[in-house]
Amino acid sequence: MLVSLTLTKSQHGELMRHLFPEDGCEAVAIALCGRREGDERHRLVVQQLTLVPYDSCKYRAPDRVTWPTDILVSLIHEATKRRLAIVKIHGHRGYDRFSDVDDSSDQALFPSVHAWIGDGLPHASAIVLDDGRMFGRVVDETGEFSDLSSVNVVGDDLSFWYPDRTIHNLPAYAHRISQTFGERTYNSLRRLKIAVVGCSGTGSHVIEQLARNCVGSLALIDPDHIEEKNLNRVLNSSMEDAVSRASKVSVAKAAVERMGLGTQVLALHENLFSEHAVKAVAECDIIFGCVDTVDARHLLNKLSTFYLLPYIDLGVRIDADGRGGVDQVCGSVHYLQPGGSSLFSRGVYNMEQVRAAGLYRTDPIAYRSLLKEGYIKGVREDRPAVVQLNGLIASLAVGELLARLHPFRDEPNATFAVHRISLSHGIYEHESEGEPCSMLSRNLGRGDVEPLLDWAELSSVGAAA
After folding, report:
1. Residues 181-197, buried b or exposed e (16+ Cβ, 10 A)?
2. Mind listing the pLDDT tens digit for each residue in 379-437?
3. Distance (Å, rounded) from C-alpha 360 to C-alpha 367?
4. Do residues 176 and 150 both lie within one domain?
5. Domain tally for the chain?
6. Are 21 and 60 within 8 A, CB to CB?
7. What is the pTM of this model?
8. Do 179 and 141 share a structural domain?
């Protein structure tokens, strides 16, 4: 079982300010973390930080701190009630490993934490270095240690730290990626698990580019089959696939495997609006949303917030009259970070549109009735699409990921939260990150809840009934 720890840029900044005070002595903080209890990956996502006051510590020195464990009582009660994880965090100045003092402290503390909570789930200890890097370990009920598989911070930039930073046997096909972005970025790409939701027009291009950038693992989610109308824009699809009604995810998986570049693929031929699909996405490190409905976008934005996942949303639009007349050819890429602005707060959709799209998907008869009676506005059901626009927007989106992993721009990444392109009007513009979304931010780091994402349709209880 791989166990990782994720926190936001804001949470990381709060830790840096607290753990490295001007007096040069050690300090400590406790994180309450939501979870994604996966079969192969267990993600700890920071929901709440408790900063242990300096003056409440019995002893503080540059190389150790003794703090009152009674501060844990209320936190353990909360962790027990809501199935959360306890993560102890302290700072080191330049010493990039756990000390003997740390070993003794963790072996004394965590067996008690496990005994109090009794959930049999991972709890952890982590260290922040004065240059911002982090590493950590799981401490089990007997006091045994095992490294966290990664610690990552999601913000304007994306930081991933792994216990083993060695590049082994860099293959020939990876040399130019390493030459362009460096071995550290290649090493991160090789270990990332990325979800691509929607494997049609833009999604097929995103999959192609991620695989050729040597991403370690892809989780592909799409419920549809290849149809003849898809062949003008879905990469790697063929007339044979349309005739046999091959699933879009199976076509994409086969194409990635033919490349032979080592990318592992999980292909889920199912709707995003299922408990299984949502949990699969939540086990990943990054989301690419290549969907064309606002209810799917809203779900992905919520998922990003609950599980502290960066979410890159792609949108394309062609306004054509069906007879060769074109008014608009445009597209957008949104980079969304948990705790920041959302597609909702950016005005991409409103909740009435989400309701209409959900009704269209779940109850078409009721949708048609309400539409006819004027109670809801209609959902665009069929749209023109061409491969070149999809490829352009997909390239912009994958480039956005690379820019966040390896900041190469002259301007800060915060100024590139939104990209908009209009080919018909010759416009390219980008916008800065907006104010935090008040509707979604309250769900930061909640992880697994019932129903998932507080979305009744995803209730496992309802599914069982």
Report:
1. beeebbbbbbbbbbbbb
2. 565 566 678 999 999 999 999 999 999 999 999 999 999 999 998 889 999 999 999 99
3. 5
4. no
5. 2
6. no
7. 0.94
8. no
